[in-house]
Amino acid sequence: MNGKDVTSLLNGTELLAILSDQERERLAEGVSATSFPKGSRIVAGQGCAGILFVRKGRLRVYLVSEKGRDITLYFIEPGEICVLSASCVISAIAFQVEIEAEEDTEAIRIAGDVYAALQKNNLRLENYTLRLTVDRFNDVMWSMQQLLFFNMDQRIATYLYDECGKRGTTELLATHESIARSIGSAREVVSRVLKQFARENIVVVGRGKITVLDERKLAEKIDQI
């Protein structure tokens, strides 16, 4: 698949609408279709991975402590763009993030130097990038708020409630380990809270699956501050 074919996959997106025909031709020189198997890591902190547009699957953006513990900042869903993967585009960002494929993921990669050159001469594209960055920092602040001010019941209830909304279903394919990784906790702690939720008839816990029985009770858990 050549650059123009890959660029055509962006038809209908705000990104492509911002660019002139000449800029689209320049973009085609720096795009490629890529895929990431579930669990694969995209190391963004030590280099410029480019701008990633997710077509299918899901990417997890997270921070890792010196002791190896990680905390999820946010997820990139289909139709969304990851800008923090391109440190060469947003040089003011001083911290390092890591990215991994939460699911088998198909994406379009835009080379960082190509995107940076387009942005330099296109104020609308620069504003678009800034807006994406601000939106993501809102997600980061929400994650930090949960980490600092929510108890474990609230954090797990928030995760389950948000996942139901994003997935459009109350049957979530998630393990205790994946939830622990997402909220920056230990698997044993997650297991203990889920058992309590099950006793309260809020969820049913199965092998690799959690079924939410009562979203209202989950919301009440979140509001117990």
UniProtKB/TrEMBL annotation:
Gene3D superfamilies according to UniProt: Jelly Rolls (2.60.120.10), Winged helix-like DNA-binding domain superfamily/Winged helix DNA-binding domain (1.10.10.10)
Any single GO CC term annotated in Swiss-Prot or TrEMBL for this entry: cytosol
Classification via InterPro entries: cNMP-bd_dom, cNMP-bd_dom_sf, Env_Response_Regulators, HTH_CRP, RmlC-like_jellyroll, WH-like_DNA-bd_sf, WH_DNA-bd_sf
UniProt keyword list: DNA-binding, Transcription, Transcription regulation
Single Gene Ontology MF annotation: DNA binding
Taxonomic source organism: Candidatus Stercoripulliclostridium merdipullorum
The UniProt record lists the keyword tRNA-binding: no
Name by which UniProt lists this protein: Crp/Fnr family transcriptional regulator
A Pfam family it matches: HTH_Crp_2
Alphabetized SUPFAM superfamilies for the sequence: cAMP-binding domain-like (SSF51206), Winged helix' DNA-binding domain (SSF46785)
